[in-house]
Amino acid sequence: MLNQLEQLAQKALAELNAIADSKSLTGWHIQYLGKKGEITLMLRRVGELPREERPAFGKRANELKRELEAAHDRRAAEIKAQEMEKAFAENALDVTLPGRPVRRGHLHPSTQVLRRIYQIWAEMGFQVYRARDVETDEYNFQLLNIPPHHPAREMQDTFYTTTDGVLLRTHTSPGQIHAMHEYAPDPVRIILPGMCYRHEQITARSEIQFHQVEGLAIGRNIRMTDLKGTLTAFAQRLFGENKPTRFRASYFPFTEPSAEMDVQCIICGGKGCKTCKYTGWLEILGCGMVHPTVLRNGGYDPEIYTGFAFGMGPERITMLKHGIEDIRYFWGNDLRFLRQF
Ligand code: DAH
């Protein structure tokens, strides 16, 4: 039996040296040295030997067992080191690789156009005047020469609050009155940007919120030619030096006379296309000479003072500039749209 044990130990050692991974090593340990391992079982059979052979067998058996355990531990250490080295090699970090760029956020397309508009007007001496989003019927309509039953109210479906006479401004024009009250009788040269709200069915062409940039100039000698020259200069800075513009007569309750300004279509260059509805022109703003009643409501004597005003929609201008066909993209928070600007 001692012979058998020696042979078994030899075989175990030989197998151990051939093992190259920790999983097989665990299997080996179970096979030979586990509770039901071959070596363990053989040790238990010591009782089968004649009494006088037992001590020698037991001694040798324990020696072999310790040897095998020691060999196992050495092999285990070797394999672990090899496996670690391999793992390091596989996940090697190349510190010379360029980093992955972090995607930076950027300004919303409306903000970009607004800032460009502020810049142009600043160059022409217009300051930014901030007025409130929540307005009264008086400022949003009445002081702008739109009495309660004026048909012009039809164009602007209004969000009314639960407080009587308090509403969300439907245009930036009421800011004109606030500014006049603050500055009269001094001259004024301001733009009034801000969000406006209208109770509309949301479609590709109409939103319930959008920006406007209002403008107001008041002084002693301001004439229609000043309006035309200033707005033409603005349009050429925004759309390009040689871009043709034109004025068409129009109607707004708060200006007299009133006009709308067109630029030659930026998509087709005037030839006619879907964007300009085959007219060759794009309407970009409304304007006019401040109505005497509005001047008076603001605290200026219309016998002495005159002024011009205008209002434009930056989202509309952005849509025209980039051929965007659906206004809902602006507040839809779809990054696929926003990332294009
Ligand atoms: N408030 C007008 C609107 O919402 C835009 C406008 C037109 C403003 C003419 C003006 C103006 O100041 O003179 O449609």
The fold-level CATH name of the largest domain is: BirA Bifunctional Protein, domain 2
CATH architecture verdict of the largest domain:
2-Layer Sandwich
The set of bound ligands, ions and cofactors reads: 3,4-dihydroxyphenylalanine
Give the N-to-C terminal Cα separation: 87 Å
**Level-1 CATH class name of the largest domain:** Alpha Beta
Shape estimate: rod-shaped
How many domains comprise the coordinates? 2
How much of the sequence lies in strands comes to 15-25%
Order of helices and strands: HHHHHEEHEHEEHEEEHEHH
- Determine the CATH superfamily of the largest domain: Bira Bifunctional Protein, Domain 2
The amount of helix comes to 40-55%
Summed up, the helix count is 11
Low-confidence regions? none
Mean pLDDT: 92
Instruction: Assign the structural class, choosing from mainly alpha, mainly beta, alpha/beta, alpha+beta, or little secondary structure.
Output: alpha+beta
Tell me about the largest β-sheet. Answer: 7 strands, mixed
Order of strands in the sheet with the most strands? Answer: 1-4-5-9-8-7-6
User: How many DSSP E strands?
Assistant: 9
